[in-house]
């Protein structure tokens, strides 16, 4: 990878902001799917930051090669956002449970973390949520690709 691939561009900024917005709306659509007594804490903020990172590093890296590549870059960015959100949120929940001495060892905690990832992933199987994430990823990818052509 050439050094210039790490340079900040307007397209990367747009992708980061766009996936942050997708992360926020995805978080808001996910909240009603969880039990009412769920304490979300920094849930939205963490997902916004993850959206910015995935937009900058995943989607932004693949821009400037045409609209088909922008389309797939947006979807790849959303997929990365969903994976890392599931990973970090399940890690956070596992750590909370570990502090309550629910696990006998490290391996049981890690196994429980991946079980939580699967449970949260199954909870995400919801039409409006999936539609919003896919549509948001496509729009972010295409708009970011347009910006890469416009201001390159």
TrEMBL record:
The chain crosses the membrane at residues 9-27, 39-58, 70-87, 125-147. Keywords: Membrane, Transmembrane, Transmembrane helix. Coiled coil: none annotated. This is Tellurium resistance protein. InterPro entries: TrgA. The lineage of its organism: Bacteria, Pseudomonadati, Pseudomonadota, Alphaproteobacteria, Rhodobacterales.
